[in-house]
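Predict the 3D structure for this chain.
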Amino acid sequence: MLPWRQLAVLGLASSVACVPVLLISRLAAAGPRPFAALFASGALYCAVYLAAIALMPGEGSAVERIRRVLLGSSTAAAT
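Done. Predicted structure below.
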């Protein structure tokens, strides 16, 4: 059974993080240095993606939510 709730959170965070990347790529496409815009949009994507995950409702602090979403649940016992 797939964890649809977690997949929905990741999909929503990814969709939200794409908005500034699309804006930067549209504005910088005709500019003299589109490679610098590529790095800026990648950094902005990462920041918005992590912020969107941190702002999602859930238990724990923002860092704990990011860690839980990206690395998985830590409640499973390793045996």
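The two ends are 21 Å apart (CA to CA).
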